[in-house]
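INFO  loader      accepted 1 record
INFO  loader      residues=325
INFO  predictor   begin
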Amino acid sequence: MISVIIPVYNSAPYLRRAIDSVLEQTYENVEVILIDDGSTDGSDSICDSYISDSRVKVVHKQNEGQAKARNIGMDLATGEYVAFVDSDDRIEKDMLEYCIRLMQKEKVDAVLFDCFMSEDLNGVMPSVNEEVKRIAGQDILPFYMTESTRNSKLYSPCLCLYKHEKLSQLRFREGKIYEDIDFKYKYLKRCEAILVSNQIKYFYFVSGDSTVSGKLRQKNFELREVDDIIYNLTQEEPDERVRFLGKVKKARTAFSLLGRMARYGVVETELDEKTTAASLQKELRKNLPILLKAPIGMKRKVLALLLSVNYGLAKRLLRSQKSIY
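INFO  predictor   done
INFO  writer      dumping tokens
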């Protein structure tokens, strides 16, 4: 059995699509765990409308955040395997069958796959020629640290099928954002072998108000906390590659925050852009030597240099060429 955990909070326009995409899977031995996190838009009633399906469990709780909802879902899960789906997304009809077939055939502890990001709810996920790579032992953490430095999609807990037994005592940090980064790291550290597929099996809905929601706010500085966690975890590893990539993760904090602010602006009631930019620029300049040696694209290295010396110019560039960052 595969337990699919869906945390739900005020996603009524999309929720049925998410739930139905799981219930209509070609792999039928599933349980769907809906954790209603104090919704006020009717999502709670939508969850209850599925109770008649014996595969569905529904829990209603006060609003405490996505991490808490996922943790409750893991406590309730009875399947041998676990997957996560967000309530405004959907999955390909064969996602679960594809992943469990690979996992059982190759005897691995996780299958990672790709997603399609779109603002169009009716967007069609593209088809790509299959490439599957096996990564084992001491190469798993270097892979995760390197590839997540290049592409933050890898942090998502939704782009993976997990073994339930490997999740024992592993939980998301509650009341935080960016809690998925260290969760994924800790899980992969427990794995003996994983498969990484380029197949696109998950539809990630990007809200059209990203310019507003993307603005830098005080909450985003919790990135420092998770970067410190990852740094401390990596420095315990014997592999020099992992230790260096942990330093890169910590060094990227100011770059990520400054880049976000340059691209989207700030929530003015929480932060002063000029003061915040000056502070982050100082930190970024200190960390440039590490970033310039990091496994990131040349465009990003140039952007890091530009942000460190001329925030205004970098801001104009980012807002005209959003694909760079």
